[in-house]
Every structure is written in C-alpha cells, then in structure tokens.
Amino acid sequence: MNRHDKIVPEWEAVGTLGDFEADVPERCEIGDLAVMVVRTSNGEVHALYDVCSHAEVALSEGEIVDGEIECWLHGSTFSLKTGKPSCLPAVDPVPVYPTKIEGDVVYVATNVEL
Prior knowledge:
Elements: E1 11-16, E2 26-30, E3 33-39, E4 45-49, E5 63-65, E6 68-70, E7 77-79, E8 96-97, E9 99-102, E10 105-109
Antiparallel strand pairs: 1-10, 2-3, 3-4, 4-8, 5-6, 6-7, 9-10
C-alpha cells in the first residue's frame, strides 16, 4: 500500500442501540479483538480497545465518568474520543475505532483507528 491508498473501513455489527444501556460499557468480540463499546447519555457511540494500556485488564469493567472510561484496577482514565489517558498510572493511549449507526444497528470498524 502506498501513501495515496485509503483504507476502507470494514464495518462489523455489534448490536442495536437498545443493546447498549447509556453510559454502561460493554465488551464486544470482533474476530480475535476485544472492543469496549459504550453509548453515552448524549447518544454518541464510542469503541475502544478493551484493554488498559497500563495493567492489561478489561476497560469494559470500569465506569464512564465525564466522557472518559475509568479503569477499575488503578483508576487511570481514558478519553472515549481519543483513547488518551488523562491521569496516571497509564501513560499510553488505547486504540479508538470508528463507529456508525444505520437505523438502530451499531457498527464498529477495527481495521482502522481514529
């Protein structure tokens, strides 16, 4: 692939909007990849790699606070939009994947990162 080639997202259905309770992260398996999907109270849907970059535990077991996911083990928080940590002990971001909604079906593309 050269620098002019575009990666075309490969969309995978992960459920319907009704499957995702507002501000409750859910773990979804897409192939071999664990992805945390969350529908926020304002209706946005976000998808992040479901492993904390600090302690390698499931982020989907954490809580959503002010647009971030808080890791349940050591309290690191990651932006739902960028995956960047906002507090220690994590210093590395987690991958964030594009999402789309068609009708009420939620799709995630894990072959590209935002």
